[in-house]
Each structure stands twice: as C-alpha cells, then as structure tokens.
Amino acid sequence: SYRTKLTGSISEGSKFKLVDWYLESDKFQWVKGASPELSAARAALTKTKTETEAERLAREQAEAERLKLAVAEALEKRTLELAEKERAFEGQLKALQEAQNRLEELALIDRQSDVAQNQGQTAAQEPFIDARDRVALIIGNSFYNSLPKLQNPSNDAQSMRRALIESNFDTTVYENLDLKGMQDALRTFGNRLNKDTVGLFYFAGHGMEFEGENYLVPVNENIVKPYELATAAISMKLVTNTLKYADNEMSLVIVDACRNSGLGDSRGVGDGFAVTRAAEGMYIAFSTAPGMAALDGEGNNSPYTKYLSQAITESNGESLETLFKKVRADVMRETEGRQIPWENSSLLGEFRFK
Question: Domains in the chain, start-ordered, CATH in brackets?
C-alpha cells in the first residue's frame, strides 16, 4: 500500500507538541504515530548513536591505557637515568678518594726522600750543580707492531728536544726505535757521560710493569705474553744502571709511559709502574704515580709532556723540585686527578734548567 508521512502538531491542553502522522492510502485515513519506515530509521539512528558512543568510550579507554603506559615508561627511564648518575657520582667519588689516598702516600714518600737527602746537610750547604756539559737522550715510540699505536710520543719527543736545547742540552732524538736501536742509543748515551756532565734520559711510549720490574717497550717486538718483556723490552734497571755507573755529576730520568698497552689483564702485569728508587745523584720523574696509568692526551702532546716542556721553557731559576711540583699540579688539574705525576730523588745538590 502507498503510505505518506505527515508531521503536524496537535493541541493538548495549553501545550503544543510535535507528533507524527501518516496516511494509509489503502484506508484513505490519517493515522497518528510514526510510520513503519520512520520507526525503522529512528531505530537505525539510535543503534548508530549507541555504537558510536561505544567506539568513543573504547577510544578513550585505549588512549588512557596508552598514556598510562607512556607515563610508566618515562618513569622507568628517569629512574634508570638517576641510577646511572648515582653510579657515575659514586665512581667519581671513589676516584677522588683513591687520588687523595695516593697523594698521601706520595707525600709520605717525598718526606722520607727529603729526610734521606738532607741528612748531614742543611739547605744552605747544598751545592749548586752546574756541570759544563749537559747531554740528553730522547726516545719517542708511537708506531707499535703488536701494541696499540700512540698518537703523541713522537710529538712529545720533539717538544722535549726544543725545550732542552733552550736549556743548553746537547740533545739526541730518536723516534720509533726497535729493541736493538734502543739498546744502541742507550749504550752510546752512557759512553758520553763523565764526571763533568749532567745526563738526562727521556722516554715516551708504552711502558709496563711485570712482577715488580718496569719495562720500556720498543716498537717492533711482537709481545704476546708479559714474561716476554724480559727479553723483548728495555728494563728501567738497565736505564738507571747506565746512568749510575757513568759516574757523572747528576742524572735525570723522565718517563712518560704506562699508557694502555692491552696486556693489563694478564697475570702479573700491574696497572702502571712499580716504585723505582733513584740511585745517589739521580732524579727520577714519572708521568704518573706507581700503580696508575698515564694518558696519551687528545691534543698534540700528552698532558705530562705538555706541561713539562712548557715549564722547562718558561723556567727562570726555580729549583728542579719546584718545577716538577708545578708540573704535577698542572697535570692533576687537567686530568681531574686521574693522573698524578710522581718523582723520586737522591740528589745531594740543587739543579736548575736555566
């Protein structure tokens, strides 16, 4: 049957309401109420609204879960960051404490050394060492075969050469020597020393300690096991004996070594050098304290040689001890206490570079 929808208004008392009418054409009369088509459309609209509301609630719930998860992840990340910072702070605090302990140990060693040096002799009686001849041997080893290559020893050697020439040293410089080259250079150096000379030996490169003995490493040796150092490297004992038995007026030994060698985890290999005692008339200076590693540096020089060569160049009558104390302070400041230069002296007189 044909049906027509009509919307009109009827009076109910004093109020008007919008109502539905539709015409049933087969009966030719108006019927109050919604037509079947309108009822179906309204039902469909209600269903759509219900489904849309459910989807909205689902979306809001999903967004709430996402935000909750994001907050939890951010909180966990922040917690991890704080824990990492706390560990880093504890590590720095431990390093500072170790540096403080090391300084106290070195201060004790210095006091003991000063006592031994000054026995039977007052400061006013100390003779001034001013030998006619000053002879220096400088070795800088950078390009190693079996150990990590180093950036700065060759630069360090040249910086020391310039500084010592200004201080009237007859200077011989070698770079990247093998074992035989180091042996020959040391032998020639020792033969040049006599009672009228001040001898200075400087080495920059890899240095290692094994079972209490310190070694300076040549560039060509394929050192795999630490016990091979005895035959493949130059012992510090050989260096100090070369100077000790030259019977010269005074000797200086300066070693900027103990850089990361890659053998530090081997049994018997210590971190840094062991303590080396100076023979009579000898002054020994290490770029770092016993048991500590030295830094190669990120510039053109290691921190130690940078400040040492600078101090020698700028020296103006200060004593050897004063000069090296200044170098120690400069290196500790730059490395934030990670590297503490160390000296051992058995000098009976006073020496000045200029």
Answer: 3-54 (no CATH), 120-351 (3.40.50.1460)
